[in-house]
Amino acid sequence: MNTAATLEMNNATVVFGSGATRHTVLDRVSLLVRPGEFVSLIGPSGCGKSTVLNVFAGFVRCAAGTATLDSRAITGPGPDRSVVFQQYSLFPWLNVQRNVEYGLRALGVSRRVRAAKALRLLEHAGLAQYADRYPDQLSGGMKQRVGIIRAFATDPRVLLMDEPFSALDAQTRSTMQQLLTRIWEEHRISVLFVTHDVEEAVFLSDRVFVMSAAPGRVLRELSVALPRPRDADLVDTAAFLEHVHEIRVLVRREGLVGIGESPAGGIQGEDLTEELELERVLRALLRREGLVGIRESPAGATHGEDLPEELERVL
Predict the structure, then answer these.
(1) Which of 59, 75, 197, 287 has the fewest CB atoms within 10 Å distance of its CB?
(2) What is the pLDDT along the chain (315 residues), one digit of tens a residue?
(3) Which of 153, 180, 203 is the last residue before a domain boundary?
(4) What span, in angstroms and rounded, lies between the C-alpha atoms of 80 and 2?
(5) Contact at 8 Å (CB) between 1 and 157?
(6) Residue 123 belongs to what domain range?
(7) If DSSP codes are grouped into helix, strand and coil, which group holds residue 221?
(8) What pTM does this model have?
(9) 64 near 13, Cβ under 8 Å?
(10) Distant-in-sequence, close-in-space partners of 144: CB < 8 Å, separation ≥ 6
(11) How would you classify the pairing of strands 207-211 and 218-223?
(12) C-beta atoms surrounding 259 within 10 Å
C-alpha cells in the first residue's frame, strides 16, 4: 500500500478565458492537506471549489502560484491520484468487476491479482453479488459505490472527490458517507472532498476550508474536533451541530455576497458565540421535553428553575 501524500497550494491563481472573456476563478488560494488527512472544501456556487480539485488532479494549470504533491510541482494527472466525479463515470460496456479492475489493468497488474483485489473490495462494499452486472443494472448509490472502490483499488496516495454524493437521496447519501469513512479509516490516504453540504463536510472531515464568493479565496479554515470512527449518531450531538452552524453562517454570508446582496445581517464575532450558545440551550430544552414526552428521566439535562436562569444569561 502506498503512503499518503501532502497536497499544498500556495498563492495559486487560476484564470479562464482571454480578452473580454478573461476572468479570475481562484485568487491567491493557499491550503494544505496533510498525509492521511480528510479535508473538505465548501462554499457558495461558482466559488472555484472544483477548480481547486482540478488543479490538484492535474487537469488545470495555475496562472500564478504553485500546486504541489510532496513538494513536487503538479504538471498533469498521475496514478498517485484518483478522482471520483459527481457523475458515476463507469464504463457501460464493462461489468462491475471489470470496472473496478480497470485501473489495475492499466498499471499492468496480472489478471489473477486484479480479480482477487476487485472481488475483495466488492465484498467490503456489499457488492460481491453484483460483480457480473453492468452499470445500467445498478441503482445510483450502487454505481457510486463501484466508483469509490475503483478509486481505492489502485492504492493511490491521494483521493480527490468532486461532490460524489450530490445526486443521491438523503438516506443513500448517509449510507455512502458511512461507507466512505469506513474505507478511508482502513486506507488512511489523503482526501480532498468538494461538497455543498455542510453536514456532510463536518461528518467526513478533519478540517474544512470555507471559500469566498467568486473569485475564490480561502475565507476560513476550521478544525473538526470530533472523535473517530464516526457513525450516524454523531449528527445529533451538540458538538456536531455547533460545527455545522458555524460553517453554515459563513457559507450563507458568502452566498449573499455572490449574488450582490449585503451580508450585513450576518453573524460575526461575539454574536456568533451567543447564537451558538442559545442554540445549544434550546436544543437541550427540546431534548429534555422529548424525553419527558416518552416518560424517561432527562438525566443530566438542565432542570426546572435552572432553565430560565441559563436562558436569561445567554439572552
Answers:
(1) 75
(2) 678 899 999 999 999 988 889 999 999 999 999 999 999 999 888 899 999 999 999 999 999 999 999 999 999 999 999 999 888 889 999 999 999 999 999 999 999 999 999 999 999 888 999 999 999 999 988 998 999 999 999 999 999 999 998 888 888 888 889 989 999 998 899 999 999 999 999 999 999 999 998 899 999 999 999 999 998 889 889 999 999 998 988 888 776 555 455 454 444 444 555 555 555 555 555 555 554 443 344 444 444 444 445 444 444
(3) 153
(4) 9
(5) no
(6) 88-153
(7) strand
(8) 0.80
(9) yes
(10) 84, 88, 164, 165, 168, 176
(11) antiparallel
(12) 10
Q: Is the peptide bond before 215 cis (omega within 30 degrees of 0)?
A: yes
208 with 72, same domain?
yes
265 in a structural domain:
no
- Cβ neighbours around 300 below 10 Å, total: 8
Q: Name the residue among 157, 121, 210, 155 with its Cα closest to residue 36.
A: 157
Cα Rg for the chain, rounded, in angstroms? 22
Q: In this structure, what are the phi and psi dihedrals at residue 16, rounded to the nearest 5 degrees?
A: -110, 150
At 190 the three-state DSSP class reads strand
Regarding beta strands 81-84 and 38-42, do their DSSP bridges make them parallel or antiparallel, or are they unpaired? Answer: unpaired
Outline where DSSP puts E strands in the chain. 7-16, 23-33, 38-42, 64-69, 72-73, 81-84, 158-162, 190-194, 207-211, 218-223
- The answer for 130, left when phi > 0, alpha when psi is -120 to 50, beta otherwise, is alpha
Task: Look at residue 270 and tell me if it is in a domain.
Answer: no
